Amino acid sequence: MKRAVIIAHNHPAVQPGGAEIAAFDLARTLPSQGVETLWLSSTAGPPAADVLTVTSEGRPDRPSKEVQFCGADYDSFWHRHNQVEHLTGPFLKVIEEWQPDVIHWQHFFRIGVEGMTLLRRRFPGIPHLLTLQEYLPLCYRDGQLVRRGPETLCSGPSPAKCHGCFQHIPMAMFAAREVWIKSNLTAIDRFIAPSEFLAEKYVAWGIERAKIEILDYGRSLERVAPHRPLKPGQRRNRFAYFGQITPYKGLPVLLRAAIRLPALTRQPWTLDIYGNLNGKGFPELVRDFNKLLRAARARVFYHGAYDLNDLPRLIEPVDWVIIPSTWWENSPLVIREAFGHRRPVIVSDAGGMAEKVRHGVDGLRFPLGDSASLADIMALVLEDQSWWPRLVGNIQPPLGLPEYATRHRTIYEELSRKISKGRS
Amino acid sequence: MVLSNRMKAISYYRSIWRQESLAVETAVVADGKLLVSGWLSGRGEDATHLTPYFCGRPGPIAPIERGAARPDATHHLRHRGLFGAQAYDWRAMLPAPIGAEDGGVLLVVVAGRGKDQNLSIKLTAEPRAARAALLRGVALSDVPEMSWMTMLGAIQTDCVKNCQVRSEISFGKMVAEPTASLIVPLYGPSPYLAAQYMALASDPDLNNMEVIFVLDDPGHETAVRRELTGLFFVAGLPCRLLIHNQNGGFAVAINHGAARARGRYLLLLNSDILPRAPGWLGELLKTAAVRPDLGCLGARLLYANGQIQHAGVTRPKSGQPPIEIRYQGLPAEHPPAGRSGPVEAVTGACLLISRELFATLGGLDEGFIVGDYEDIDLCLKCQERGLVNYYDADVVLWHFERQSFIKHELAAGRRWQYNEARFRQRWPVGERG
User: In angstroms, what separates the C-alpha of A170 from chain B's closest C-alpha?
Assistant: First the structure.
């Protein structure tokens, strides 16, 4: 196992989402494990200077080679690149020149699912893997599995249900979309799911369970932020939110809980919100967010976007991290970060969050979307200060990056052996 | 002043009345006959007969027959101010003037109780245009008449004769001895082509099969070629693309594909049928292999909403329509639909038949216009020979019915009426065994 290709949908320098960071972390750690790695990411915008094709000789902590592919002309219904010539031309050539022993798709977005079929055919003798990041193959609504209109969680897709969310698209198109994507996914030897919950959703959709490996993302912290020293009389009363602000992240739930909280407890507390308010696509969210923020302004502070590298500094004064997402989530990066810095978390009781946080052991859970219950839990931990040390004591640090990369190498090698055995 | 205005209005209406009383819309030449038709209203009802003039020579006088009401023309007249107007179809059937097969302009003198009226109309002689004109035109009653039927029949024969495979493109190398040949007629750029191709390409059962697409709509050649070229490069399933010089309809497309097929079996497959999982073709072939008396074999087809689209056909003893699709619209899990067994007929949307048998039966009947009943006709021919048509409930496929048909120019009009009447002539209800 000498040479790997990691294909991702974006570069963390362009969009620092959890999936992008995890993918890039893997690509930059594999070389230290003896696997030369080509990082191929697809972006829509103009090429960012930092991500252009570079050969990172003499640059430790980077993938061996980085190439940026243009994914601007992309059909996000079929997950298909509109310029198939781009795939069959430059994209394929870069990979052929690399002569990989393994191809690992971190995502197919902005490249197209048929890319998997193409590479399978061109490289039949090597393992092909796909990490399942969210539910994009199942759900046209940004892969969130949230029903449009009532904004309730969706148990799983069907052409009729999908048509209910997108009434301008005929049911037949959704059935065809599923056939198209599933057919292309047959090119994959092994799927990697960061959570059991996500794997189950895919199994219910029709992916073989035996083909899915559960492996949570790895994360290495350069510096663990120490806990805030308490002065006499001070309490563990500082809450914080970290992450992007999109309609699925549940900020209104959190803000409503904050507005309600003073009625439940007389203890002092604060809530800091760190995150990029993506106002472009969601004007309603911006309006709601600003309105609620004004109502809660005495104790809630919005700080805007942050850089992940600053997180140790930002999390230092924080006691509790809250993740109020209103979709299933997969394996949120913020949970790993919080656990890495040994901060207990309060999360919505659904999907990947419920799986990663043990209620009453290393964190607390509240019913998804229920701001009153969230306020109750916040009041509870403010009143009863014994919760915090108890939860902190049980926190398990996340998988380190070297370990994460080693596990991947093991999977690659095992698959590679299986394939060569199957051929002989 | 007021009176003067009213006089003006009356004279205006009179002029329209005269002008709009009778119009000639089509003049179709086929089968040695000339059919002239249009609409009439008000004073136009005075007209009783007409005389055609072609190249200056008069033809025999023919009576004008009044047909059914014409809502569109009525609306047009009322919109122009003739509030009480009511328009009707008219037509006259004449022997075709010599030389009219090549087209030209026909002059018609309409005569009757009122003043004679001179009208002119371009002759429609090109078969496809003539067919379209006939299908659009005049209905004297709800029952299609013999003269109309025979004229259409003759035109249809001409249309089919003119439809040929213009070019043939091979993608990759086909297997030497395919078990089955899949024949997929395409009409326009199907939104499902990529999904269908990829589903076939990712199914190991397809390794020893041959896939033949027949593009029955040369206008979209560029788009379809580009799509197939890309898909072939990506997924590598060898296939062939036949391109018609003009639209010929379902039966012609299938027959042209079948003529070039080499498989032991033929699988007629619509472009809007998608498999839900791999392995379906193997299942169908397994079923076919154990039934030596097999005529045509069909599968359970579902709409995208999960309801049954097709589970075989029965023929009711009487009444309309002449065939009935079993369990259509019921849930996919409807228990009787889950039982495989003999049926009277299956749909040509997904139909497996041995190539030899298909050739013996002369292929699909090309006399039906665009695509209706030729599949049932094929199945009934099998029955006539003592073979059994079979429904395999274990093979479940999507079928987004009529998606490809709806766009067709002839979908409206009286195509259905013609095809159904033709089917009834072939297979009268009382006479079956």
Answer: 9
Tens digit of pLDDT for each residue in A314-346? 999 999 999 999 999 988 989 999 999 999 999
Q: What value, to the nearest 5°, has the Cα angle with vertex A168 and ends A166 and A170?
A: 85
Kindly report, residue by residue over A96-147, the tens digit of the pLDDT.
Answer: 999 999 999 999 999 999 999 999 999 999 999 999 998 999 999 989 899 9
In A, which residues are within 8 Å of B303 by CB distance? Answer: 171-172
Paired strand residues for A15: none
Mutual orientation of helices B146-162 and B415-426 as an angle, nearest 10°? 100
Q: How much is the pLDDT for A63?
A: 86
CA distance B102 to B123: 9
CA distance B174 to B143: 49
Q: Which residues contact A302 (CB under 8 A, 6 or more apart)?
A: A273, A277, A293
Q: Whole-model pTM?
A: 0.89
Among chain A, residues having any CB pair with chain B shorter than 8 Å are: 78, 80, 84-85, 87-88, 114, 117-118, 121, 158-160, 163, 170-177, 179-180, 182-184, 186-187, 206
**Residue written as token pair 């902190």:** A392
Question: Which of A75, A80, A179, A208 has the most B C-beta neighbours within 10 Å, making it the best mutation to test the interface with B?
Answer: A179
Cβ–Cβ below 8 Å for A175 and B400: yes
DSSP lists the bridge partners of residue B52 as: B108
Shortest CA gap A150–chain B (Å):
21
Contacts of B291 (CB under 8 A, 6+ apart): B297, B388, B390
Contacts of B155 (CB under 8 A, 6+ apart): B30, B31, B127, B130, B131, B134
- Residue-wise pLDDT tens digits, B384-397: 999 999 999 999 99
Q: Find the helix packing angle between A114-122 and A171-185, rounded to 10°.
A: 20
Please report which helix (H) or strand (E) contains residue B161, including its range. Answer: helix B146-162
B196: which chain A residues are within 8 Å (Cβ-Cβ)? 179
Q: How far apart are CA A158 and CA A299, in angstroms?
A: 44
Tell me the DSSP string of B197-213. HHHHHT-GGGGGEEEEE
Listed residue (B61, B267, B252, B295) closest to B166, CA to CA: B252
* H or E element in which residue B80 lies: none
| CB-CB under 8 Å, B199 with A183 | yes
User: How high is the ipTM of this complex?
Assistant: 0.89
- What is the dihedral angle through the alpha carbons of B377, B378, B384, B388, rounded to the nearest 10 degrees? -120
Please tell me the distance from the alpha carbon of residue A102 to that of residue A413, in angstroms, as a whole number.
9
- Supply φ then ψ for residue B255, to 5 degrees: -65, -40
Instruction: Give the up-direction half-sphere exposure of residue B262: CA atoms within 13 A in the CB hemisphere.
Output: 10
Alpha carbons B305 and B296: distance in angstroms, whole number: 27
Check B202 against A187: CB less than 8 A apart.
Answer: yes
How many Å apart are CA B220 and CA B187, to the nearest integer? 8
Residue of B nearest to A170 (CA): B304
A172·B398 Cβ contact <8 A? yes
Q: How far is A105 from chain B (nearest CA, A)?
A: 17
Relative to beta strand B265-269, strand B350-354 is antiparallel
Spell out the residues 6+ positions from residue A180 whose beta carbon is closer than 8 angstroms to its own: A78, A80, A113, B194, B195, B198, B199
Answer yes or no: are the C-beta atoms of B241 and B205 closer than 8 Å: no
Classify residue B12 as left (phi > 0), alpha (psi -120 to 50) or beta.
alpha
Radius of gyration of chain B (CA): 26
